[in-house]
Specification:
single chain; 280 residues; alpha/beta; Rossmann fold; 6-stranded parallel β-sheet; 3-stranded parallel β-sheet; binds guanine
């Protein structure tokens, strides 16, 4: 039997419709939500991502500003830009697109963002809030993935969730969110010795590695939920995730496609966070 698809485009469209209505309501109270997206350098993938973020914002009525800076921009100049945006009352959310050029310390830049404007949820204050269960901004990609799991009505309590990848942006916060829902969570990474055996015990697999075919059919228990966070290009230049989609969908219960899965949900959750930063 073939797995049911979890349609990220459809879920994101629903969220965007809700955000559009809430933005309109905020505007009647004289609040116009604003998002600043900072792009340093000209990485082609990052350029595509930020243009989507700006376009999405405009679609839902959020004022957005794209701040482009040269690849040779100094760390000091970027920190000054962040500080200016921290002090700009028309800007409620700040996103500095990652990765940054090698000469810039990304942790320093993240630490400079006012946590109340940190719509990426990368600041240690927000990461800490997530860890201890306090309110704060949650990173958009794992939050989007959680919304996808929620959409199929799955109760995670006592379920075994396996997260593959331990990045600060996805793997670690994803594990935290699953744990907050009382799942039993295993985090696997590049040093994990028995990935296949661990995955075979999983009720939910979240693949967030950034490498094609990390999850193959022989690693997936029948009926498992498979969430693919990967965004890769295959040898034909086609967009693909970390999961061998065609084969894994034959055994999984639910699966997210790439494209049209977690990607649009990440973008939708950024809008939700910006709205929240503006006071909704
Ligand atoms: N690079 C890849 N994903 C993200 C993201 O969610 N936020 C930022 N700022 N940079 C990214």
């Amino acid at each position: 039997m073939s797995a049911q698809l979890i349609d990220g485009n459809a879920l994101a469209a629903q969220i965007k419709a809700e955000v559009t209505a809430e933005v309109a309501a905020l505007k009647t109270r004289g609040i116009h939500p604003g998002l600043a997206v900072v792009l340093v350098g000209d990485d082609p993938a990052s350029q595509v991502y930020v243009s989507h973020k700006v376009k999405d914002s405009e679609q839902v009525g959020i004022h957005s500003v794209l701040e482009r800076m040269e690849a040779t921009t100094s760390e000091v100049a970027l920190l000054a830009k962040v500080e200016a945006l921290n002090n700009d009352p028309s800007i409620h959310g700040i996103l500095v697109q990652m990765p940054l050029p090698k000469h810039i310390d990304s942790q320093k830049v993240i630490a400079a963002i006012n946590p109340a404007k940190d719509v990426d949820g990368f600041h240690v204050v927000n990461a800490g809030a997530l860890a201890v269960g306090l309110p704060g901004f949650w990173p958009c990609t794992p939050h989007g993935a959680m919304k996808m799991i929620e959409s199929i009505g799955m109760n995670l309590r006592g379920k075994h969730a396996v997260v593959i990848g331990r990045s600060n942006i996805v793997g670690k916060p994803m594990a935290q969110m699953l744990l907050n829902q009382s799942a039993t969570v295993t985090i696997c990474h590049s040093a994990t010795l028995n990935l296949k055996e661990i995955c075979l015990c999983a009720d939910v697999i979240v693949a967030a590695v950034g490498k094609q075919n990390v999850v193959t059919k022989d690693m997936v228990k029948a009926g498992a939920v498979v969430i693919d966070v990967g965004m890769n290009r295959n040898s034909q230049g086609k967009l693909c995730g970390d999961v061998d989609f065609g084969a894994v969908r034959e055994v999984a219960g639910f699966i997210t496609p790439v494209p049209g899965g977690v990607g649009p949900m990440t973008r939708a959750l950024l809008l939700v966070n910006t709205l929240k930063a503006a006071g909704a």
